[in-house]
């Protein structure tokens, strides 16, 4: 069973810690009694959070042997961090453990040295400070999360949910991640490259994108153009593009590509369709086009993805 250890240092942000606990403990995989073993490892038997103290069953030594180490954010990035916490992170990295931070937890990863030479993110309000303190880390303030394989970092608050669901998808595939998202009453995780926040200028007219997005998802097999989408939405192409940028942080056609890739992931996991058939069903037209886009967004080929992420 995949063991997940969640660190609880002094000053931990309870929301970040609870997000990881709730998402991973509720994952259900057909045929498995439990998808994850989740433990919370406290810096001390009683951990001081801002409004209350946390009493944990496990100490830092129990983090050894975990397959994944989650490092939640800390309330005060200027507060001293114990060497015991940093050593726990370093030991996990040396052991090859997958490590993921939420929000300002990236400061703990950076302080331990494991982010040196890596790209990372954190809450947009703290990104410039992370870059200033740790120049060896390439800080990207404009994304929800960064996946470096064994090291992952996320932005603040809700982005922690996106990161956790992304890890569930990596471990058990899109169908299981979708069920976990429904249990958390949220959409399946947003793309890691999506903007952390989107400024919404006062619109000149109202356009609810949700019906348009649902229509696009139902038309993934078609050769949709910007003009066709705008016609369905009964707006000009310029207005459609502006509203997409305001409400999703990307363009209509880029959103469409992302939706097609996610549908392809689902079909590769849950059906016996050939790669060529998946390409046709998702609107890519050819297996070559699917492989190119799939490789850019997922980082592997459709064939390799199918082998790694079929339901267990």
Automatic annotation (TrEMBL):
Keywords: DNA-binding, Transcription, Transcription regulation. InterPro entries: Class_I_gatase-like, DJ-1/PfpI, Homeodomain-like_sf, HTH_AraC, HTH_AraC-typ_CS, INH-QAR. Pfam families: DJ-1_PfpI, HTH_18. CDD domains: GATase1_AraC_1. The keyword Lyase does not apply. PROSITE patterns: HTH_ARAC_FAMILY_1 (PS00041), HTH_ARAC_FAMILY_2 (PS01124). Residues 210-308 form the HTH araC/xylS-type domain. It comes from the Bacteria. GO terms for molecular function: DNA-binding transcription factor activity; sequence-specific DNA binding. The keyword Transcription applies. PANTHER family: ARAC-FAMILY TRANSCRIPTIONAL REGULATOR, HTH-TYPE TRANSCRIPTIONAL REGULATOR RV1931C. This is Helix-turn-helix domain-containing protein.
